[in-house]
Every structure is written in structure tokens, then in C-alpha cells.
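Lab notebook, bench 4. We co-purified these components, and the gel suggests they stay together. Before we commit to crystallization screens, I want a quick structural picture of the whole thing.
Request: model the full complex, all chains together.
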Amino acid sequence: MTRGCLDAPVLRERGQHEVFCGLTGIVWLHRKMPDAFFLVVGSRTCAHLLQSAAGVMIFAEPRFATAILEEGDLAGLKDANEELDRTVARLLDRRPDVRRLFLVGSCPSEVIKLDLQRAAERLNVTHAPHVEVLNYSGSGIETTFTQGEDACLAAMVPGLPRTDASNLVLVGALPDVVEDQALSLLSAMGLDDVSVLPARRAGQAPAVGPNTRYALLQPFLGDTAGALDGRGATRIAAPFPFGVEGTTVWLRAVADAFGVDDATFDAATAAPRARAERAVAKVAGDLGGRRVTFLPDSQLEIPLARFLARECGMVPVEVGTPFLHRALMEPELALLPEGTRLAEGQDVEKQLDRVRADAPDLTVCGLGLANPLESEGFSTKWAIELVFSPIHFYEQAADLAALFARPLRRRAMLAGPAAVAAE
Amino acid sequence: MKLSVWTYEGPPHVGAMRVATGMEGVHYVLHAPQGDTYADLLFTMIERRGERPPVTYTTFQARDLGSDTATLFKDACLAAYERFKPRAMIVGASCTAELIQDDPGGLAEALGLPIPVVALELPSYSRKEAFGTDETFYQLVRHLAGPVDRTPEVSCNVLGPTGLGFRHRDDVVEVCKLLDGMGISVNAVAPMGSEPADLARLGAAHFNVLLYPEHAEAAARWLEREHGQPWTRTIPIGARATRAFVAEVAALAGVAPVLDEGSLRQPWWSRSVDSTYLTGKRVFVFGDATHAMAAARVARDEMGFAVCGLGCYNREFARPVRALAREMGVDALVTDDHLEVEDAIAQAAPEMILGTQMERHIGKRLGIPCAVISAPVHVQDFPARHSPQMGVEGANVLFDSWVHPLVMGLEEHLLTMFRDDPEFHDAAGPSHHGHGTAAVARIPEPANAGGEPALSLVWDASAETELRKIPFFVRGKARRNTEAFAAERGLGSITIDTLYEAKAHYAR
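Here is the predicted assembly.
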């Protein structure tokens, strides 16, 4: 057994970061929790970010908004707090369906030291029991993109009910259909005391205690894991459930933690596993031998590079991640091919120089960089789609591979009349 | 504190980016935290630019706040200068950096770069995007436009187009065509289409054509004061305004008004009998002041619509909007709160909206067709084809694009009439009605594609439930594929496993 990239050096860079801030997580979190509202306390820039990142996808009146700080709010914090209380009262009046309200801190609210935790406590008194008010920071000075979800989930942990039961908690916001698949796989192994953080609705929050075991569904939930550890729960260490192998090893780790025997495990997983392998194999043909670079974006980079390398035959060149959480990533790093260049943080100009020098077949990057790289002749995959699409577990393994194959197939299709005629 | 769901305008530094991105050889160093880099995607995704905006962000983090963000800024300036070799630089702060008061202007000046460095003061907590474009362009012009002789031939500058502008790319082409038709040469088009050296020579023109007062009126006024250049007040949107613009330009240039109307089809299209059904259609007009006023005039005078509402989101330009609204017998709506706009539209119950992307969403919710006439923009507002709003072709485009949603509207009526028809009934329930378009929501799932009804196949309840979790627009395909898959294998019933076996079978 090789040690993969466990001992690989990590290129650490601090320059211009071309990444979203943690506020962006609101875009999927508010869909996951239909009775929750996210109120960003920030600037016009925050509002504009949310609408630019989300506007293309959401056409209904969303369950998020920005309380835009104005000059008057900067003058005195007392007034800002009163303003916030008024704003929240107006909002809840307009949206009686809201049961959970998240006050989300931003760069400006952090810099002027507007204490949203105290605001949440104050507002909880006013609006309990109908509405629960929580707070977290999605500011760009503290969080990068998916860390916003981490901060949000971590903020919910202290309020989770206590239990002594030997239960299982899955942690991470997945599309309902995928979450249901995970639950039914576990149920087929006889694991029925399973709950999910975040719960879809208020009142369904998982209970935690010293006998709770939890498994992360997403790799970017380090703070949430820390908070759950603090409540006495035990993390089930595993690679993440991307691809057939990731899903199997993740399920196996959970099964082992609960003493599920091999026969039961095989009975539950054999069929979906076999069809996922067949489905991935069909797509992998387009990916085999192709070189891929990940620019830092969502912290999904390392697990996805592992999937592409081991199940689709791709060759990772550089795998950049905004933040490398060693403890959570160890099982993944062990599976990543030796020789992969790992990078943490970013200096975008230097990193783009490396992309040009490496000339990978596919570069996974953010929306700001994709078209400029395409116009330089590089195939790209928008990283943000990996956060918005169902990609976890067996039934989505081939879809995940297809997300990477599509830009390459498209490029081949558009390459010339001969290619089209041959289709 | 202002509660805001969607905003009509971004922060002022995005306005500065629009100016820098439109120009060549200008680099913008922006003191800002990491998330602010989202603004790049406005240009690379919405406008589909193949180059990153010429912007360097300092992307400071919380740990930098305690130490030295000023050094970070200076390093970023130097690195940007060395890498991009710009011919002019603008420096400034976004909302967060404004709070930490590092004085980007002073820091940049201390570096002694051998190029003009223009410091921007863009108050993020009181001003917005259009102020940012106008102020940035004004500051660049003020710093760069020096004394210069007039061109011997009659010439003008075309002022106002920026990156990410609503049809700016195509408007410039049309307006230059109009000027060329009168033998007037174009000294510079700015900010979009110019470089610092062009700004230095702005004074060589005899007068200025101001296309977008929102983005360049401050510069036009300064040039009038300092360089004695008069500027045009008419915005050539619509056939009548185009003719008036030609007359105004001719007077400023001292030439004969010449307008080639050979390809101006809009007036006849509007008079032809097929257009009779447009008569008196009630339209609600909302956008930036310039486009809203122009659209209201075209709607009334050239399309034969009845304007039942008129407003703008940029308060700075509210006065002429109020005057025009009075003239049209409606109350002007001046607000940047889209919920207020939605209420006003719901109350007016127009047959069509001429608005922005915001009103397009409002229209979808209310079931009212909408044509987009103004920023804020969306990827759809950057069509591949030439699609101006101004000049001769602009008038033609207005006719087509305003009539198009109404045709859709007719289809809406048919759909509404036949709503109870079993074929239009969506068994999946109304879950997407809340946020989809009604027309799309009513598209029925097609029957078995093979033509052979799969009557013998039974979906078990859990598989049926699973199927409903699939988005409606691919649900029909999933149902067909699964049934074909099951039929091929002679299965009598469909379970969740069958559904996913089929999904795996048809994967890719």
C-alpha cells in the first residue's frame, strides 16, 4: 500500500485569491432548509454577490436578503442594532412561514464589530418560540466559499438536543434525492437511527451525545466536526462518498462503526455498486489518460481528483485547494496518486502561469477564470457546478464523471466538420 | 439599514470596473477582501469576455487586519504594474476597505510609478454602480485630457459606453454610422473602446455625443467647461429620437442633417395592419432613467401603446422622469426597491412590461410578458447578433423585441383557455408553479416515446415517488427511458432499483 500524497509537500501561496466568500453557501443552504431565512448584514456588495452568484439560478423570491448597511449605521452601533431589530421584525412579519432565521455576518459587519451573536440572542427572546434566530459569519475575510456552510452548520451544533443513544448523524447539505438514497442504503444495512445535519425542517434536528457517531458528507466541514467533537460525538473517518470507491469505503466505515456484517453490507451495496461501476466505465473512456488541474475553490478538489484518478484514469497535475484540513483529508490523500502537486491558498497570477506551463487537458476553476482560460485554448469545468449538482453516492457516480467529460466531448464535437460528420 | 432582496445596481467599485474593463491599458488595483473577486464573473460570464477584467484585488483576510493591510496594498500595486504594464492605473477601495481607511490614493502615489495614477473616492455606503462609472470616467478624463488643438475636420467624441453596458457594444456601431453619414469623424469612443492616450486627446473633438448620461455626464460637463465642447442631449432611441438626434448633431457640427432611412423598417412595421392588435396595449415602463424615458416615448408615439406606469431606479435622474410621467398622465415611480416596483406593476395590471431583468422576473411571477429595455443585465442581454437599441437598426430591434413577448402572451391565453384540458394537466402537482413560468409548468410529460403505450407496466408507489423527485423538465425522459428499459427486459413492475438500473444503463 503506497502512502499516496500523505507525505507530499504542499505549495502554500498567499496572493490574490480568486474565490467566492462564504456568503455564497446561502444559495444552496436556503433551498435545503425551506423554513429558514438567511439575512446577511452587510453591504451592497454582499447583495450584489448573492444575486450574481445565484441570480442565474433562482427565479422565485428567495429566502435570503441583505440588510444593507448605510452611512447612518456606521455612525453608531447602538443605532445599527436598533435598525437590525426593526429590519428583522419587518421581515418576519412579511414571511410568517419562516421558522429559522440566520443572521449572517459579512466583511463590513465584522470590521465594524457588529455583534450578531448578541443580536441573535436578543432577537430570540423577542421572536421565540415561533422563530429560532441563529448567527454565523460568511465574511470573505474569514471564510472561503463552502466554509460558509461549515460556519452555518457549526452554528447549529450548540442547539442540538442531547441524547445518550448510539445514533448516527450524517453531516452536510445534499440534495434531498441524494440524501434519501444515502438513508435507504444505510437502512438496508439495518441502520435506522440516522439523522441529518442540517435538518430539512425546524424540529427535526438530530440529537447528539457521547454515543453519537457522525460521518461527514462533505470535505469542508472542519469546524462543524470540531463542534460535534465538542459535544462528545465521534467522527467516523473515511474518504468522502464520491465515486464508486469513495461511496463503498465511506459506507464500509459507517457499517464497521455499527458492527454490520459483510453479508448484510454486500446485500445492501452489491447491486447499486455494480451498476454504478458499469455506468462510470462508460463515461471514463472520455477521461482516461487526460491530465487535470484543479484551481482552489470548494475544498472538494482533493476527493474529486482522487475519484478522477482512480476510477476514470485521469492524471492529476496540480490540485489546489483553498484550505487543506489535514485531519479530514488523510484518507483522501492516501489515495491520491504520488507525484500530484498539492497547493493550498492562492496567488492567482502565478497559478495561471503554472496552468499555462502545465497545459492540462482540463482545468477545474471558478466562473471568473473559465472563459479567459477557454479563450487561451484550455478546456475548463466550472467548479461551482460541482457544488450545485447531485454528485454523491453510487447513483450519481457516472453523473459526476460526466460533468468532467462534457467539456472535453464538447470541444471534440466543435473541433471541426469531420468530427461532427463522424458522430 | 435597507432590506434588499435583489438590487438594481451594484456597489460603486463595480462601476469603476466597468470603466476599466471597457478600456485598454488601464489597470484597477482594488483594496478588497477575497469574496469581492466575484465581480470578475460579471464580465467573463454575463458579458462572455474572453479576458479577465484588468483588476487586481488585494484580497486581505482577517489575519491581515491586525497587521499591515497598507503594505499588502502597495505590494499589489507594484506587482500589478510589473505584470500588466498599464499606461494608467486607477486605485480605490471596496466597501470593507473603505472602513479600514488605508488611503489607497496616498499609498499608490508614494510608490512613484511612472504612469498616471488616479485615486478614486467612491463612497460605498451611500452611492451605487452608476455613480461609480460616472465618477471614474470623470476622474480619468480630468487627469488625462490635456490641452490639444481641434482637429481640422469636424469631429466629435462618443461618450458613455462601458463594459457590461446594456447593448453599448451595438449602440456605438449604430451611432457611428449616423455620424459617418453626415461626414463627421469620430475622435474617440470612450470609455469603452479607448486607451489613456485617447483620453489625452479628447479635447481635439469639436463636440461630444453623450450616449449614456448615467455613465458620462460628469465628464461631458467638465469637457464643456474646460475644453469648450458642447454635448448632445438627445438619446437616439426610436425612429423619432434618431431623427431629432441627427438634427441636433447637424446643428452642433454645422453640417446638413442627413439620415439614410433606407433600412428603417420600424415605422412601416408599426403602421402595417398586422400591428393593429398592438393598439392601446397597456405597458408599464421601468429602468434606468435614460432608457425608461426613451422607451416610454417610443411606446406611446411609435408603437401605439398606452403607457400606464413609468419609473426609474436611479434617483439622481428622477426629475426628467417625473416631468415625462406627468406629461403622460401617470405617477412616476422612483425607487430602487423591487418589491415596490412589483406592487406598482401588480396594481397597474399592464399587458406588458418594458423593464429590466428584475421586471422580467416580476413579470414571470405575475404572468405578464416583459421585454428588457435597460440594465441590470443578464447573459441574455449580450446576444451574438448585432442588436442595438439606438439609431436606425435600434428602432427595428425595438419593434421586434417588444412584439415578441406579446406573441408569447397570445399563447398564454390559449393555454389558460384550455387549462382544464386533460392533456395540459400536470399530474406532478403544482410544486414548480411558484417559481417556474406557468407556460413551462403546463408542458405535459409526453407519452411513451416508442409509440407503444406501456400499459402493462406498473410503477410501484415508491418508484413513482422517486420519479417525482426528478426535476419536471427531465422527468418525462426518465419515465420513458425506465419504461423502455423495463419493457426490453420483460419486467412487469418498476421499482426504485429499475429506475436507477435504467439511469445507469442510459448514463452519459
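Chain B has a mean pLDDT of 89. Worth comparing against the SEC data before the next meeting. The first strand of chain B starts at residue 2 and ends at 4.
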